[in-house]
Design brief:
The complex is a heterodimer of chains A (190) and B (236). Helix content of chain A is 57%, strand content 27%. Chain A has a 4-stranded antiparallel sheet. In chain A, strand 1 and strand 2 form a beta hairpin. With 236 residues, chain B is α+β, with helices and mostly antiparallel strands. Chain B has a domain of 51 residues. In chain B, the strands form 2 sheets. In chain B, strands 1-2-3-4 form a 4-stranded antiparallel sheet. In chain B, strands 5-6-7-8 form a 4-stranded antiparallel sheet, with no helix packed on it. Chain B is extended and about 105 Å long. The relative contact order of chain B is 0.06. The chains are: A alpha+beta (190), B alpha+beta (236). Chains A and B meet through helix 1, helix 2, helix 3, strand 1 and strand 4 of A and helix 1, helix 2, strand 1, strand 2 and helix 4 of B. Chain B: Belongs to the CENP-O/MCM21 family.
């Protein structure tokens, strides 16, 4: 009799612990998604963080670790933007649903590829499997600046229909590069 | 007589003491578990309230902070998380990567109609000239041929062509897997294909009224950058 009551308590403890874990993650996500710090605030934080650390050497993650990590990520990002020609000017994501191993996020992205600017919205569903994470795009919506061009608008609506985000970027990249070549060639004749 | 009686009494007292200890232990355990449940419930309710408050406060983008000033560390960690999220977006575009000590390690991702499939790595060295150090591209993709054509002269073109091959391959493979999975009752046996998945052979049955007609199909994809067949042969 006593054992079964203990078991009930133990089960409740386990389910509460899981619930707390999910809630903590949810809180962190909403914190991340709803805050924004400007570059000056960032610079000030780096300086003050280094000053703080000087007085307390017991901290396990030194500011140089965080700063190094920050700089390495910024370098990688800046390289990718320069290399691919795709510059993202803004990105926001919001967690719509998070249960067990499924996460559904809504993304808003805007940027340009050479001279072509775009604005995107899509939902990304990620499911954690045993070996990897599967990702599926739904609800893709694309707005392009040069949307009046019939070829571009046909391409955009076909891409939206099939959720082909990857194809959109690959084709955008190639198309933008050719536009650049064409522009340079015409300049040559001026 | 008396001795045996005393022994029995001693044994009984001992057993009674043991039982009492056991009950005490059980009660302690129960009390501990009860307290833990109370503690966790409290923590859960507090967190839930925090989350609900945040959800309500979210109407406009950006600017909603905790009443307490965020610490410098929190700001840095926020920025690091934002940058990581941005790098993840590059993964969705098909070409992402990171700088290494001696060059760049590119990650080419593939997708078919919004479903992301395998991704492949290409570790490049840049000095004295661009060359491939390591990669995870399958052997049946003509990597060396493509590298010979473009790697030294136009690295963007090299990655674009390689990406086309990889996307077409995983697209064909995915379609074959889906066909096998969703039409297994009509397909006889299993789909036969080569590693490159550009040659597919299978038999399927079409039933009408009381008859079943067996068909043999051969799909050939001679354009390796395409996930649609160039030649279809159906025989009865």
């Amino acid at each position: 009799m006593d054992n079964s009551i203990c078991q009930v308590y133990e089960d409740e403890i386990q389910s509460l612990e899981e619930e707390i874990k999910l809630l903590a993650e949810k809180y962190e996500d909403t914190q991340q998604e709803s805050t924004f710090f400007s570059d000056e605030e960032l610079l000030m934080s780096i300086k003050s963080f280094q000053r703080e650390f000087q007085g307390d050497p017991k901290r396990h993650e030194s500011p140089s670790d965080l700063k190094t990590q920050l700089e390495s990520l910024e370098r990688d990002l800046s390289f990718l933007m320069k290399f691919t020609g795709i510059q993202f000017t803004s990105h926001s994501k919001k967690t719509v649903e998070k249960t067990g191993n499924r996460t559904l996020q809504k993304h808003r992205l805007s940027g340009n590829c050479h001279s072509l600017s775009f604005q995107l919205e899509f939902q990304l569903l990620e499911v954690q499997n045993k070996e990897n994470v599967s990702a599926v795009i739904t609800g893709l919506s694309i707005i392009m600046e040069s949307g009046e061009d019939s070829d571009v608008s046909k391409f955009v609506s076909r891409t939206e229909e099939h959720g082909n985000l990857l194809t959109f970027f690959r084709s955008l990249s190639t198309y933008a590069e050719w536009c650049e070549h064409r522009r340079c060639t015409f300049l040559h004749f001026k | 007589g008396v001795f045996a009686h005393l022994e029995t009494l001693e044994a009984q007292a001992h057993e009674a003491a043991m039982e009492e200890e056991e009950t005490e232990q059980q009660e302690e355990k129960m009390a501990r578990l009860k307290a833990r449940v109370r503690e966790l419930r409290l923590r859960r309710d507090k967190l839930q309230a925090k989350v609900d408050l945040r959800q309500k406060g979210l109407g406009k983008e950006g600017g909603m902070l905790d009443p307490a000033e965020p610490s410098a560390r929190a700001v840095l960690e926020w920025k690091i998380r934002s940058l990581k999220a941005m790098l993840q977006v590059f993964y969705l575009t098909g070409i992402s990567g990171k700088l290494t000590r001696r060059g760049v390690c590119f990650c080419l991702s593939t997708a078919y109609e919004g479903i992301y499939l395998d991704s492949y790595y290409l570790d490049l060295l840049t000095k004295p000239e661009v060359r491939i150090h390591r990669h995870s591209v399958p052997i049946f993709i003509p990597l060396e041929h493509i590298a010979k054509q473009y790697l030294q002269t136009d690295i963007r073109r090299f990655l674009a062509v390689l990406s086309d091959h990889l996307n077409a391959y995983t697209g064909r493979r995915y379609q074959a897997e889906q066909l096998q999975e969703h039409f297994s009752d009509q397909i006889e046996g299993t789909l036969q294909s080569n590693s490159l998945c550009n040659l597919l052979v299978f038999k399927y049955n079409v039933s009408s009224k009381s008859n079943t007609f067996p068909f043999s199909v051969r799909l050939l994809y001679s354009d390796l950058c395409c996930s649609l067949p160039t030649e279809v042969t159906v025989s009865c």
